[in-house]
Specification:
The complex is a heterodimer of chains A (344) and B (306).
Chain A (H helix, E strand, L loop, with lengths): L1 H5 L9 H19 L4 H13 L4 H23 L7 H18 L4 H30 L3 H21 L23 E3 L2 E2 L1 H18 L1 H11 L1 H6 L4 H28 L12 H11 L4 H25 L4 H18 L9
Chain B lengths: L6 H26 L7 H19 L2 H23 L6 H24 L4 E2 L9 E2 L2 H4 L3 H6 L2 E2 H19 L1 H11 L1 H6 L4 H25 L5 E2 L6 H11 L4 H23 L4 H4 L2 H17 L12
Antiparallel strand pairs in B: 1-4, 2-3
Keywords (chain B): Cell membrane, Membrane, Sugar transport, Transmembrane, Transmembrane helix, Transport
Membrane topology (chain B): Multi-pass membrane protein
Main location (chain B): membrane
Chain lengths: 344, 306
């Protein structure tokens, strides 16, 4: 095991990600070719549909939740932990963010502030349940975080389907939140949410680089047992990390609700699949926050480009999802993302 | 409360259990050779899709089953070679496989049949429900086994066979050795890599059956992401059962009954959003109860190193 564990680390780390992306592009292109399309028109549609001047705001708007969910995955991953419960945590945040401005009085800016904070706290606390399950009961967080998603989604679905439903429409959704409590629009589809997300991203990167906590988390990622002997309180750290991770998932939910949908709609937060794409992006970056943010933005561009491709070339946009998966698989297999193999 | 347990409930529970049981059996096999298989969800989806394609193309359910098994074995090569030859992290590979399965089946659904969401066609032949007159007359056994598919029968027979193979044969001994101490197994002359590859591929064939049951067992359709968390439940069953096929099967039975029970509760007027939660809460409770006393020591903590 030791030889195999050491060997890949001598390879230069840098080209791994670009290589993986290249392989994803080539294999995705082959898939298009086999199914009777033209890969070049498809890729041109993705590039122009995501990076041209007119589509850039759309890409940025898509990048806000995706980069957010990338951070949700990257923070625990930095410490060798995986949070698969992003869906549930995002839904908890989105629901709370929709309910606060609906049922609390007050000036708009205060409602926005309260809604976001409440969403972050609620989702963060929900996420710590998974950490508590591992530290207290020895249930692997990987599984408990995922399983906890289902009750959260089901509960939210029930709440907006029955007691708090907007009865004027036929859908399971809350009433619209008041105009005053919506995030201000910057231009086109872009709202102030991008500024908040950018600020959070900067904080996460700075925390990772320059604080003791960030250092301790990286130590845990390299060797959890060693970090424990070195005096890092592992259980407390896990709880704190999950709270931070869940809180950002809650923030993502609240920004979507307050910034673009203006109500909590059953299933609307989950259908774009931000959680899994975010996890992919975080894995692509090996959990390093700055690289993860870039990877998240890259996947966001890929996905908005996918919509354009579907409009213009009849090639389904799920192709971009296939490409993301190929990129990750290639990276995992070729360079052994988990090469330290601390687990076994 | 007791009047909720009816022959119908038992029968539908057995139906609901089949794909999960097969997937959990596959996960158990992989776990025994030291490969943590978290890709059951994606493998099941690939199997379900290939089963529909095969059934559509050949006009027989058997063709669908064969296609499902072949496709899932092929798909499982990613995991089999990824963790052995290429020494990738199993968790990362499995997450990638799940996403790949979800994207690829949705992509192919659109490109091959021109539909998105759900594909149904009269040309898709479903699995026959086997009805054995002698058995369906018996009170309890009859409820369970009458009008089930051949795959349901196969699932229980396979569970028994795998258990016997694992604990009563030299093959099983070597298999367990590979998972427990790869170095010791190597020194005994066991080719660890080959054991892992073959086991993961064989497990893939079993998950292919699970997929076929999913798409051809009751409804004869394929819809995007139709595995809908069943693969994850199977992963939990593997954990609850600690890689023992019988305990994993018991966990599946628990989940299947919770699932069928939740459908009964809907009939009592509870909204489905509430009842859908029941199986997951039962699973979580079971996890807390079984892990609670033993603490962490025995479980290798599952992590992914950045």
């Amino acid at each position: 095991m030791s030889d195999a564990a050491r060997a890949p680390s001598r390879l230069p780390r840098l080209p791994a990600a670009p290589m993986a992306i290249l392989v994803g592009v080539v294999l995705g292109g082959l898939l298009v070719l086999v199914s009777g399309g033209n890969p070049f028109t498809a890729y041109w549609a993705i590039v122009t549909g995501s990076l041209s001047w007119s589509s850039l705001p759309n890409t940025l708007n898509w990048a806000v939740p995706l980069v957010g969910m990338t951070l949700v995955a990257a923070i625990p991953l930095r410490g060798g932990m995986i949070n698969l419960g992003g869906d549930g945590q995002m839904v908890v945040g989105g629901l709370v963010a929709a309910l606060v401005p609906l049922y609390l009085p007050g000036p708009g800016w205060l409602l926005i502030l309260c809604a976001i904070l409440a969403a972050m706290i609620a989702a963060g606390l929900y996420a710590t349940l998974a950490a508590w399950g591992e530290t207290r009961h020895g249930i692997p967080m990987l599984i408990s975080s995922l399983l906890l998603s289902y009750p959260a989604i089901g509960f939210a679905s029930f709440v907006v389907g029955f007691p708090l439903r907007d009865t004027t429409t036929g859908l399971a959704q809350t009433p619209m939140i008041p105009e005053a409590a919506r995030l201000p629009v910057l231009s086109g589809p872009l709202n102030a949410g991008i500024l908040i997300m950018a600020a959070v991203a900067v904080i996460v990167v700075l925390y990772d680089r320059f604080t003791v906590g960030g250092y301790e988390l990286r130590m845990r990622g390299l060797n959890a047992r060693f970090a424990g002997y070195g005096g890092v309180p592992l259980a407390r750290q896990m709880t704190a990390v999950m709270f931070a991770s869940g809180a950002i998932a809650g923030l993502v939910g609240s920004l979507i609700v307050l910034g673009s949908q203006f109500r909590f709609q059953d299933g609307a937060l989950l259908s774009p699949g931000y959680t899994w794409s975010g996890l992919m992006a975080a894995l692509l970056a090996g959990g390093e926050p700055l690289a993860a943010i870039l990877a998240g933005a890259f996947f966001a561009a890929l996905q908005t480009g996918g919509f354009a491709m579907q409009r213009e070339t009849a090639i389904p946009r799920v192709l971009t999802m296939v490409m993301q998966a190929i990129i990750i698989l290639f990276l995992a297999i070729r360079h052994g993302i988990g090469r330290q193999g601390g687990a076994r | 409360m007791l009047d909720l347990i009816t022959p119908f409930l038992v029968n539908s529970a057995v139906q609901a259990i089949t794909p999960i049981l097969l997937a959990a059996l596959a996960g158990t096999l992989c776990g025994r050779v030291g490969v943590f298989n978290m890709a059951l969800e994606g493998q099941m989806l690939v199997g379900a899709f290939a089963a529909v394609v095969g059934s559509y193309a050949t006009g027989s359910a058997l063709g669908g089953i064969v296609c499902a098994m072949l496709a899932t074995v092929l798909f499982s090569t990613i995991l089999a070679y990824g963790v052995t030859i290429f020494r990738g992290d199993a968790v990362v590979i499995c997450v990638g496989m799940n996403l790949l399965a979800s994207g690829l089946t949705a992509y192919l659904l659109r490109q091959m049949f021109g539909v998105s969401g759900t594909f149904s066609d009269p040309a898709i032949v479903g699995l026959d429900k086997i009805r054995i007159a002698a058995i369906s007359a018996w009170p309890v056994i009859g409820w369970i086994f009458s009008r089930q598919t051949a795959i349901t029968w196969a699932a229980w027979i396979l569970t028994a066979l795998v258990t016997i193979m694992m604990f009563r044969t030299p093959l099983g001994l070597r298999l367990r050795g590979v998972g427990e101490d790869a170095e010791a197994a190597t020194s005994m002359g066991v080719d660890v890599t080959r054991y892992r590859i073959v086991t993961v591929l064989a497990a893939g064939a079993i998950v292919g059956l699970a997929g076929a049951q999913l798409s051809l067992g009751t409804v004869s359709i394929f819809s995007e992401d139709m595995s809908a968390g069943r693969g994850w439940i199977a992963v939990v069953a593997v954990m609850l059962g600690r890689n023992h096929p019988l305990w994993a099967a018991l966990a599946c039975v628990l989940f299947g009954f919770a699932d069928a029970f939740s459908i009964r509760l809907q009939g009592q007027g509870l909204p489905n959003q509430v009842t859908d939660i029941v199986p997951y809460l039962v699973t979580l409770a079971a996890l807390v109860l079984t892990h609670g006393r033993r603490r962490r020591r025995q479980d290798p903590t599952i992590t992914a190193s950045p």
